[in-house]
Amino acid sequence: MRILLIRPNYRTNVVTPPLGLGYIASYLKSKGIEVKVVDGLRDKLERKQIQEQAEKYKPNAIGINSMSSFYFESIELAKELKEAGFRCILGGIHPSFCPYQTLRDSQCDFVFCGEGEQAFWRLIENDFSNLGIKGIYSKDDLDSMNQKVELTPPVENLDSLPFPDWSQMDPKSYPLAPHGFFLKQYPFAPIVTSRGCPFNCSFCATPNLYGRKIRFRSPENVVSEIKMLVRTFGVKEIHFEDDNLTLNKNHIQGICKKIIENNLNISWACPNGIRADTIDYETLALMKRSGCYSISFGIESASDSILKKINKKEQLSNIKKAIQLCNKLGIVTNGFFIFGLPGETKETLRQTIHFALSSGLDGANFNALNIFPGSEIWKNTKSESKCTSFLLDSPPQWTPRDITKKDVVGARRKAFLRFYLRPKILFATLKRIKIRQVYYILKRFFSLYNYQE
After folding, report:
1. How large is the average pLDDT for residues 32-37?
2. Where residue 386 falls among pLDDT bands split at 50, 70, 90?
3. In which band, very low, low, confident or very high, does the pLDDT at 437 lie, cut at 50, 70 and 90?
4. Topology annotation, domain 170-449
5. For the stretch 400-412, what's the b/e string if a residue is b when 16 or more beta carbons lie within 10 angstroms of its beta carbon?
6. DSSP 181-209
7. Is there a contact between 271 and 239 (Cβ–Cβ < 8 Å)?
8. How far apart are CA 22 and CA 178, in angstroms?
9. Per mean pLDDT, which range of 182-191, 363-372, 394-403 is the poorest?
10. 152, 116 in Cβ contact below 8 A?
């Protein structure tokens, strides 16, 4: 039995190992299945080149990763592979919430809705029949358009999963284009230590994909993977990509203590963002001591009314306090902001830009609202928004009634220029850029410059 797992090539400024495919690969291998991972993004492969690899490998089935940001590339690849006679399966966050659309668009055999490790193995065990398997849909299910979509059962014990198949995602084979763009040491590797989210921010799909119950890997399990990455692949920096790395104080402190106890001497950051109200001085000091040098915060807006409207359940006072604590400890801070959220006005746009400039942040990301499938905003606005593009630098898909798309585009450019053209921030930012990152930094700058309404 041979399985081929593919991430297609697509337009992006971030190139990191596909952890989802890595987990599926290692899980299937633990069941005795031969698995090959093809990373079209890392290797800059065209669809024809990927098909040639598939024809050479002769897999029993092909699994294709399909996120909303590269949905169209995924379905086009699936169609070509189907035409070549391969059995195709699509999984990821987009098929999880749009399974019937994905089946119709891609002509694939199956879609996975939810976590894929155990589901993929069950499908193989069932001789590629989805009968009786929760969360897997086929073309035979297309007539049941009104039925409620179910997700695959989540993995309750994350420690039971083998580490991602790093042998096929060697960190040294990836360019210096990490999530967050900056790093201190190379090579780096992303890690996820938890799944699920107890919060319900209306712009985010995570709670609906992984569940409201958060599941943590044990600190021992996490640090065992870090030790393996350091010793086997020479990794010098870790990027924690959790949605809730610091939610449980015992969890994050346990990881920090284990890193220190094992004398790993690594640098680490959390570029995916953490909640400001989950940290305190004691925890931050321990994080700093264990190698943390950079933290991103999901701030979204400087309007308390908007934060309330999007169910953020966080206050600006807590965010300001967290930034100040990081500044005191010498930890670099970055803030994520979203323009065009429900309730946005020209005045709240100004408030957010002013907050970003006066907050003490070292970096800031200003994005237009992207309406991703699975989020509450998507459910509420999909009749108004066609969602034809999901790229972060694509034009706004939807805006609230008090502002226009032109307002959002203008605010984004204004915020970026005003924030980064301040001499102190500009020089500090230039100092953090590695020579090998310049290409990707320039790509990001020009994508913003060419950003249209």
Report:
1. 98
2. very low
3. confident
4. pyruvate-formate lyase- activating enzyme (3.80.30)
5. beebebebbbbbb
6. S--SSSSEEEE--EE--S---TT--HHHH
7. yes
8. 17
9. 394-403
10. yes
Tell me the two tokens of residue 364: 């800031």
CA distance 400 to 309: 12
What is the pLDDT, as a whole number, of residue 138? Answer: 93
With b for 16 or more beta-carbon neighbours within 10 A and e for fewer, the 141-160 pattern comes to: beeeeeeebebbebbeebee
Cα end-to-end span (Å), the chain: 49
- The domain defined by 2-141 folds into Rossmann fold (3.40.50)
Residue type present at position 305: S
Give Cβ neighbours of residue 80 (< 8 Å, ≥ 6 apart): 47, 51
Q: How far apart are CA 394 and CA 372, in angstroms?
A: 13
The whole-model pTM stands at: 0.94
The full set of domain ranges for the chain reads 2-141, 170-449
Residues sharing a CB contact under 8 Å with residue 234, sequence separation 6 or more, in sequence order: 171, 172, 187
Bridge partners (DSSP) of residue 287 are none
Nearest partner of 87 among 135, 48, 123, judged by Cα = 123
Confidence grade of residue 372 (pLDDT, cut at 50, 70, 90): confident
DSSP conformation class of 168: G
Coil, strand or helix at 47: helix
Out of 26-40, 179-193, 199-213, give the one with best mean pLDDT.
26-40
Closest by alpha carbon to 433, among 363, 383, 384, 366? 363
